[in-house]
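Hey,
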Amino acid sequence: MATFQIFQSSGQHWYRLRADNGEIVQSSEGYTSKAACENGIQSVKAHCQPQRFQLFLESGQYGFNHVAANGEIIGRSEKYTTAQARDHGIQVVLQEAPEAIVEDLIK
């Protein structure tokens, strides 16, 4: 099962979504508070529909942005070497994120 991990870096709160194989498939922008980060995770869970993903190819690397209904980017993928690998990452988010557990790594 995939896991959202909340962590802190450079004074901001972030999430990353790890697939069950340990790979990071999506990460957030920095949030000013843990509560805002948790709200971001809830937005990801609520917006797991195929039309919420914007695909891109940049410098020979494939990726996606996960976009909320208001057009705000709520998550970004890691970079992939093939479109097929990127599409698999999207499938992991679609299938696993809605039920993923949240792990708070901030101590």
